[in-house]
Design goal:
Strand order of the largest sheet of chain B: 7-8-9-4-10-11
Radius of gyration of chain B: 19 Å
Largest sheet of chain B: 6 strands, mixed
Shape of chain B: globular
Number of helices of chain A: 12
Distance between the termini of chain B: 49 Å
Structural class of chain A: alpha/beta
Strand order of the largest sheet of chain A: 1-2-3-4
Number of strands of chain A: 4
Oligomer: heterodimer
Number of strands of chain B: 11
Largest interface: A-B, 34 and 39 residues
Order of helices and strands of chain A: EEHEHEHHHHHHHHHH
Structural class of chain B: alpha/beta
Radius of gyration of chain A: 35 Å
Chain lengths: 376, 271
Amino acid sequence: MLPNRPKVVHSAGDDGSVVTLSGGWVVSWAGECESLLGTTLAKLKGQPFTVNLDGVERMDTAGAWVIFSLLRNLGGASELVQGGRAEQRELINTVADYNREEYVAKSDRMSVADYLELTGKRTRTAWHDFLAVLHILGSMASVLATVLINPRRLRPVSIAVQFQKTCIGAVPIIALMSFLIGGIIAQQGGFYLRQFGADIFVVDLTGILVLREIGVILTAIMVAGRSGSAFTAEIGSMKMREEIDALHVIGLRVTEVLILPRLIALMLALPALVFISDLAALLGAGLICWIYLDILPAGFIEQLKIAITPETLMVGLIKAPFMALIVGLIACVEGMKVEGSTESLGTHTTMSVVKAIFLVILVDGIFAIFFASIGV
Amino acid sequence: MAQNDSGAETKEENLLPVEAGREVILRAQDVTVAFGKKVVLDHLNLDVYRGEVLGFVGGSGQGKSVLMRTILGLNPKRSGVIKVFGHDFSAVSDAERKLIEQRWGVLFQQGALFSSLTVKQNVQLPMKEHLRLSQKLMDELALMKVEMVGLPRDAADKLPSELSGGMIKRAALARALSLDPELVFLDEPTSGLDPIGAADFDDLILKLRETLGFTVYMVTHDLDSLHSICDRIAVLAEKRVLVEGTIEDMMHCDHPWVKEYFRGKRALNRV
């Protein structure tokens, strides 16, 4: 299978030294060949010598390259090689035709100028992202306007398929997570409020917190991780395989065919999911209140009626379509930015989720300020 | 890889069957491959001799790629034996399997270059994983391979997405030749190349075969390649190797499909 270990024997001859090679001069032994021949030839520097190939069992391009490059380093050429089979000497000559210049690896060190360049590039990318988002929003508006004349352009089937994936598929996990979070908030709140004998206010705490903030944020983050990443990966791999170009050539608008159905589906799905999440969280909270704080379900509901109004629910629900728009837009823009390599698909999918979650929380903060200032 | 003793070599020489004075480097015996109820290959037999260029032809969807994938161990087979370098590939130990895999190189139809690595890194990957060589030596060897397949030197630092179709084929060939394999599988190497590029590629394979002395198993549809570089041609039809022989044998074969393929309208219009 594998030829013998390479050997280098150095002996003095009549006109200069003879370096006899034997064994396998193949790629599997290339490291060994290099060090063996290298040390022998280093000792012979400046003296006349020849290299004899008589004992070489097998030689491939790697072995030939090692012999040639070491000889070249000493200023010698392939004439110094003798013996062996004709095709082995021929291989050394062939190898000599390639790779004439020494390879210089590109340096990876960053200079100040590189940092500045990178900052500039990032700024420009951010600006382009912003334009891309505007572009999609604009086409969305234009398509929605034409729908009034030609309802088929809304692509209801596409929207339904996307709704099935993003909403119905997400119900179990979102319900379960919200149920648990509702329970945890109730338990933690109850633990501290009980010390003041104010257990009953746990209901106010969970009711308001869940309906106004937790329900929508939790759902938006889950949807960003679940559907946002899927959008980016789908559109990104279509981009990689030139399917996006194919759509263009057929005369279809990518925003209309791929992006709008996803955005509309997500904007319909998220309020529904938020509502489900709210219910599940309240159920979890009610259960924990009953078991842990001895607040009976009837009492829980009675207190909830006092604590919250329909407005509390609406504050949460009204944010949902905006969150959906953010998640969907970021996901689609990142998907369109994917280039040829699988690595770029991974990077953009990650970026899509990270950016979406960041913006969801940021926008929630802005909403909080807004609602506070209008006194809701 | 390095701990092999000399005994292994003599052992293998005995394993390689010799037929008509030529060593059989790859032998498929009674190979049956089926997906569910659909039988793709039915008791197929094929020998590949050391040092030859075997052209493998067959209609689209007849199972040429399936056979290649089965030989490479990527598809399961229902029955039969495939011996590569004298070893039954499905019965060898993991260590032996690894050694065999270092002795063949594969050029996939779409290149299958790793898209997040540069061309140079693609070529170096087998060396890096299987051998312990200095980075400098690997750089030099990779660049030599890149130049050997006719790519410009600066292509070495490019990503596959920055290359044209023909360059991807060449880069993929450089990766296939990375460890100086004894047996090279080429899946439609000239498809998608312009006639000049395809002819260059044929010359390249011939030249490399002369210098490196490998055996080529080539799946192709290119009549020019079949005429100019293949020593022997095997035709896959009716789920088995229907005929094998030189291009002259093919020209005189009377099977309707073979006749249509080699002496059809397109074939005769060539000259």
